[in-house]
Write the structure tokens for this entry.
Amino acid sequence: MAAEDLSLVDTHCHLDCEPLAASVDAVLARARAAGVTRCLSVGTSVASSRALVAVAGRYAMVGVGVGVHPEAADTVTDAAMAEIEALCSERGVLAVGEVGLDDSRNPIPLEIQCRALTGFVQLARRTRLPLVLHCRGREAYAALIRLLEAEGKDGIRGVIHCASGPPAFIGAALRLGCYISFAGNVTFPNAQALRDLVALVPDDRLLIETDAPFLAPQAVRGRPNEPAYVAHTAAFLAALRGMTVQAFGEITSRNAQQLFAWKTTTV
């Protein structure tokens, strides 16, 4: 299928990370050529969130998430939270994130991570923006669901990015109202556990992403990932779900529009 027949959205990338940051024009041109109409670039710190707001000011196809990654949760001071909240009103900001919990390789105590995440969940509620949620690690999966249940009495608008974890975690996140997004690692030969999760997600909650420049799909593994490569993940997941890539793209792009409320222009 020709790229012009596709309409794909990369719901999670890091355009402020090298090597993408050095050639954003070319990266986005390749994305458009591959059928990608929009991408959400997410911040991992106050500084990266601020930098990405500037990127969104230059490219209408780029939306931004502003937040602090759980691996930097100990930097979430009152001043940092105030700056993230101020950024929420900037043009192109569509989400609060990347935020969440991680006890898989993160030396920051889960208690500190939970305190920071609680602040971000409350910020998302105040600003009426969806959450982009990172979650890794056995204790983190359980803690995230408990926190969202406590803070999201009326449900949660957000996405579990780069989905992993046990089926029970995915089921609980779906019941809370979350979307579920899969990245290029779902295509890896040893990723059957991830592929088993795909069947748990209904069409109207499914999203795709690159997490570029990380996790390039198997077809381009070994290269820096970039938004254009979300087409490989889309093709893989479309086949897994027994549908055409075009239909898969329409479903996931509609879901991205529903969650992130992008403006209509993609120029």
In short: The chain has nine helices and eight strands. The two ends are 23 Å apart (CA to CA). The beta strands are 8-13, 36-42, 62-66, 93-102, 131-136, 158-160, 179-182, 206-208. The mean pLDDT is 95.
